[in-house]
Design brief:
With 138 residues, the protein is of the alpha+beta class. 38% of the residues lie in helices and 29% in strands. The protein has helices at residues 11-32, 39-59, 123-132, and strands spanning 2-6, 62-66, 69-74, 77-82, 86-92, 105-110, 114-118.
């Protein structure tokens, strides 16, 4: 199996992650045209951090299930979890931080007291695929 699931995106979070880059492009444009010495030293970090990072999270938050691993990508971050390490999987609305762009989440517990939150668009299919591969309580 090699199946990729995109993250479900809550409207409010999509607006923040999509709107922030738009606002920062406007700020960068103003900086480029301002008579400020070293303005490029300000513009480059604004564009890299304020535009590229939120867009990479919005566009590239995915969950890939292979025969051996659950690979989670969110922006520049990557988790590679062995399916054999997963001890419990359960739906949750937990608001803590994680590579989930929706509050309609799944909590995945693995290894010694580790957990991660995901929010695949098709939650039931995601859970079914994990069960098919022998993940307990998926």
């Amino acid at each position: 199996m090699n199946k990729v699931y995109r993250s479900k995106v809550d409207t409010w979070l999509g607006l923040i992650l999509g709107g922030t880059p738009v606002a920062l492009v406007f700020v960068a444009w103003k900086l480029v045209h301002a008579p400020v010495p070293g303005r490029w030293l300000l513009v480059i970090p604004v564009v890299l951090l304020g535009v590229c990072l939120p867009l990479s999270i919005l566009i590239a938050t995915t969950y890939r299930i292979t025969d051996e691993f659950l690979v989670i990508r969110s922006g520049l971050l990557k988790w590679e979890i062995s399916l054999h390490e997963i001890s419990h999987v359960a739906p949750t609305n937990e608001p803590t931080s994680g590579p989930a762009l929706s509050t309609d989440r799944i909590r995945i517990e693995y290894g010694p007291r580790k957990s991660v939150l995901v929010s695949p668009v098709n939650k039931e299919e995601f859970l079914h695929d994990l069960r098919t591969l022998g993940v307990p309580r998926a």
